[in-house]
Amino acid sequence: MKLFKYSIQITLAAAAILFATACDDKLDEPAENIAITDSTDYSIAENMISPLIGLYAKFNDKGWEANPLMSVRGDDVNAGGLGDQQDFAETDLYNYNKDFWMYNSAWEGEYRDVITSHSTMEQIQLYADKTGNQSLGDQYIAEAKTIRSWILFNISRTWGNILVPTSSDPTELLAADITSKNDVMQHISNQMDEAIPFLPDMNPNQRTDIRGGVTKYTALAIKALANLELKNYQAVADATSQIISSNKFSLEADFYELFKIPGKLNNENLLEMQYSDFGQGSGDSKSYLFEFFGPQSWTPKVEGAGSGWGFWEPSLKYIKFMLDRGETVRLETSVLFTDRGIAEIQKDPNYTTLPAWVSNTTRSGDEINDYARALFASGKHYLPSDQLTPGRTTYGTNKNFTCIRYAEILLMHAEAITQGASSSSISADAAVNLVRERAGLTAISGVTNEQVMDEKFAELAMEWGTRFFDMVRLEKYNELSYEGRTFTADLIYLPYPQNQVDLLPVLKGSN
Q: What residues does the RagB/SusD domain cover (predicted)?
């Protein structure tokens, strides 16, 4: 399937309208911006949640292109080639085109959600002022602040020095100064310190008002991620220790099912983008575009289930790394093999004999056929055809998109300790071995930072660019120079989209 190439041009006047909207299932209408409050009665207490519901809906409905663009550059994953969207493949090769539509669309979409977060906070405060329920208002504002911080975190990891809005007025960006990446990460950490006291003290799946909504532990996780970028390892250990000591999270026993329907709102998940077909075989459905990641050709167990587009491919380097470790469940889960891909592995004399389970037929009975664009597909973005709601045929329909999970918390905790931090919860050995045990591997002792990074490679491949950003942070650029690519320090950040530089000259030369 050929993607429709497009470029979104947003004037500031249009942006003021677009950025202020936040639609939701409950109210198919804009969450009103502070500038048009005359039509809203902020004294109706039960409506205070409406802007927040709108923000969650907007968060779940973000543009599909942002995640693959931010995640494609590590040595764990390659862009599927041969065909359209050549500049996406070139990005994977560290050849960046500032005019590529995906750069501009991802930038605009992420900033739109940042501005929507501000609009949400402003509206909630109006409700709190009118109703006198500041306590509930503080919680809802903290939730919006947490979502905003997650978005800023990903923008800054991708583009480095960025603009940090302080209100819902998009024209503020015209006069805004550039904020350095380190300052963005410190800002996020500070924001999470402000939010944490007001957030629910529970697993997100325990919430009854907005099931799966952010909690204290989501904010602690984002704080840990931001401080990891700052190499403030003690802050990482402190935040992850609080999550671990809460005993509110656990690893899903079945790694294979974690990324499928049974993994939705799992005890392992701290943040996920939620989708649903409402259990109906037709009618309304809220879905992420998982087709982008799926194989172009397959013979599904359930006849009629649609295939994907083939733009996302686990790397041969990753697969060989996993085979060398004797990995089974994590490799089976992460990689969908084709016969052509298996033959490519076996060209290497070290891998002529593969484990018997390596097959182009998944555990769930779907057969992955050869296709031109890639040798492998991502199992983490795969939904077995027999888990589709009867009547639904689109690839991945009803599957959630996990953002942060407990395994990453454990491994960040271990990483911080091996970098000199102290722990108030568990040891690095204990944290790593919890993850290894789930993967069917033997325990290790005296864990080193190198072993932690190997565990992160094995566990978190193809998830939010974690591997790329780990290697950049540790300056292990040689790991990112693989399969014909050459990575250097000047390639860490994507260039700002040219459309944005034209609109906001302060961006010129800033990353």
A: 268-482
pLDDT tens digits, one per residue of 312-346: 999 999 999 999 999 999 999 999 999 999 999 99
3-state DSSP assignment of residue 370? coil
Encode burial over 313-328: b for 16+ CB neighbours within 10 A, e otherwise: bbbbbbbebbbebebb
Mean pLDDT of 506-511: 85
The answer to whether residues 161 and 298 belong to one domain is no
Structure tokens at 273: 């983008």
Among 367, 399, 431, residue at a domain's last position: 399
Where a domain ends, among 353, 371, 399? 399
Q: What is the dihedral of CA 58, 63, 68, 69, to 10 degrees?
A: -110
Instruction: Give the torsion sign (CA, 141, 263, 371, 309).
Output: negative
In a domain, 54, yes or no: yes
Fill in the DSSP letter of residue 176. P
User: Looking at per-residue confidence, does 27 or 351 come out higher?
Assistant: 351
- Listed in sequence order, the DSSP H helices in 176-305 are 181-195, 216-230, 233-245, 255-258
Under 8 Å between Cβ of 368 and 361: yes
The answer to whether residue 27 sits within a structural domain is no
Nearest to 255 by CA among 357, 410, 377, 380: 380
Residue 175 and residue 70 share a domain: yes
The secondary element (H helix, E strand) that includes residue 69 is: helix 66-71
Burial class (CB in 10 A: 0-12, 13-18, 19+), 442: exposed
Asked if the model's pLDDT at residue 308 lies above 90, the reply is yes
The pTM (predicted TM-score) of the whole model is 0.93
Domain span at residue 457 reads 45-255+405-507
Q: Reduced to 3 states, what is the DSSP secondary structure of residue 298?
A: strand
Let me know whether 340 and 371 are in one domain: yes
Give the position of tokens 């539509």: 101
* DSSP state for residue 303 in the 8-state scheme: T
The angle subtended at Cα 96 by Cα 497 and Cα 74, nearest 5°, is 115
Contact 148, 182 (CB under 8 A): no
pLDDT surpassing 60 at residue 33: no
Amino acid at 307: S
> Tokens 């494609």 label which residue?
72
| Burial environment of residue 28 by CB neighbours within 10 A (0 to 12, 13 to 18, 19 or more) | exposed
Span 176-202, pLDDT tens digits = 999 999 999 999 999 999 999 999 999
Q: Which residue has the tokens 């459905």?
A: 285
Whether residue 73 sits in one domain with residue 187: yes
Instruction: Say what the pLDDT of residue 18 is.
Output: 36
Q: Given pLDDT bands bounded at 50, 70 and 90, which one contains residue 15?
A: very low
Q: What is the CATH number of the domain that holds 250?
A: 1.25.40.390
For residue range 54-109, list pLDDT tens digits in order.
999 999 998 899 999 999 999 999 999 877 899 999 999 999 999 999 999 999 99
> Tokens standing for 395?
């690839």
